[in-house]
Each structure stands twice: as structure tokens, then as C-alpha cells.
Amino acid sequence: MRPLPPLDPPPTDGVLALRRWRPADVPQIAAACVDPEIQRWTLVPAGYEERDARDFLARGDAGWTDGTLASLAVVAVDDPATVLGAVGFGRPDWQTGRAGEAGYWVVPAARGRGVASGGLELLTRWAFGALGLRRLELQVIAGNVASERVAVRAGYRRVGVDTATTKQGEVAVTVFARDAALPLRAVILPSADRPTPAAPVSAPSTARFPRRP
Ligand SMILES: CC(C)(COP(=O)(O)OP(=O)(O)OC[C@H]1O[C@@H](n2cnc3c(N)ncnc32)[C@H](O)[C@@H]1OP(=O)(O)O)[C@@H](O)C(=O)NCCC(=O)NCCS
């Protein structure tokens, strides 16, 4: 396996940027990962503690070195020390150019401002550009309306359904994908499939991360 290249230049849209994790991020990661929504919809361990965050960083470093995992922090360009969220993908197949699966979470205080969709867009462009991958996929647990919207906003299209093993056992997931070769287009779901928001979008605390068109 080949190591992933340095993030040079760091992926950015001028407002958000992706960077490698730092040991100083551990308290922020641990604080985020006890959030009930992150606990409910991702595979982060229950009862998350700082040692889990240190393990997360160690897995990220090992995966970077052997080319099996790209795990990155989403930050604001003007405040790179504050973690807004996490994006990453694992198990890229360098032969076919397909990556196994991407994932993301956003700290509760930064939600509703385009951090996840902007971070996923940056991750995807970097993977397709600097790394030469041709496809990224996402598995969204059924009912995670917010995450489905993030995927669509970041140019992913729904390609199917599957099951996955989670902390809650085996659950239904919706599979999304974005292909480097396909032109970006909005995905219009049939009305019967269109998700109904179960919870209000968290109110933006500032207009710091302008929404993309
Ligand atoms: C899902 C999550 C990552 C969204 O992060 P975010 O930064 O608030 O998302 P964005 O601001 O980029 O929003 C993108 C879209 O999702 C919509 N959205 C965000 N939160 C929503 C919510 N709670 N309900 C309905 N829609 C929501 C936004 O309105 C926006 O829609 P639009 O493109 O139609 O305008 C965040 O809520 C989170 O961390 N959840 C827990 C972890 C998780 O579910 N991870 C994904 C696992 S697959």
C-alpha cells in the first residue's frame, strides 16, 4: 500500500479547510462524540472518552501511512484550531479507483451552516483530484434525513439500499455515490421517497459559512 500524500495545498474553498488531526484536537473530538446524534448515526464507540479520541487519531495516522484511511478535520480558514467536524473515507481500492466508504460528523454548535456538505465536497474533490480516485460511496442509516441531505448537497446520488452492522445491530442503509466521471447534477428523488424532516434544522449561530449555490 502507498501512503497518502501530504495535504499540500490543504483542500479549501476559502472559508472551510481540511487538515490532518492534531493531538491537541483530542478534547474537542471527545466532547463532540458524546453527542446523541453522533452516537445514534455513526459507529463511534458508546461512552466516548479521550482515550477513544486518541485511538481515532492513531488509526488515522496508521491509515494515512498505509493508504487505507483518510481521516481529516474540517475547520474554518480563519480559526484552524477549532474543530468544526470530521470527514474521511476508508478502504480505497487503488486498482479500481473506488473508495470503500466516506463518513462525517459535525460538532453540534456548528450544525446548519454547511460544514458537513462543504467538508464532504472538499474531501471528494481532493480524493478525485490529488488521489485520482474515481468513486466515493456513503452509507446512511435509514431515517438520518440530515445526512441524506448532506450527501445530495455534496453531489452524491442515491444508488441503492443495503444493510450494515451498527451499534444497534443490523440496520437498513441508503447507499449514495459520487463518480468523478459523471457530471454534477441535482438529484431529484421521486416524491414518495423524498425524506420528511423529523427534526428542525439547528438554527445557524452565525452566517460564517455561507451556503453554496
Ligand atoms: C448530519 C450532519 C453531519 C449535518 O451536518 P451540517 O453541517 O449541519 O449539515 P449542512 O449544514 O452541510 O446541511 C446540508 C443539508 O442538510 C440539511 N440538514 C442539516 N441538518 C438537518 C436536520 N437536522 N434535519 C433536516 N435537514 C438537515 C440542511 O438543511 C442542508 O440541506 P439543503 O442542502 O437542502 O440546504 C450533522 O447533523 C451530524 O453530525 N449528525 C450526526 C452524525 C451523522 O449523522 N453523521 C453522518 C453519518 S452517515
UniProtKB/TrEMBL annotation:
Residues 16-185 form the N-acetyltransferase domain. GO terms for cellular component: cytoplasm. Keywords: Transferase. It comes from the Bacteria. One of its GO terms (molecular function) is protein-N-terminal-alanine acetyltransferase activity. Residues 195-207 have a biased composition (Low complexity). PROSITE patterns: GNAT. Residues 194-213 are annotated as: Disordered. Pfam families: Acetyltransf_3. The keyword tRNA processing does not apply. This is RimJ/RimL family protein N-acetyltransferase. It comes from Conexibacter arvalis.
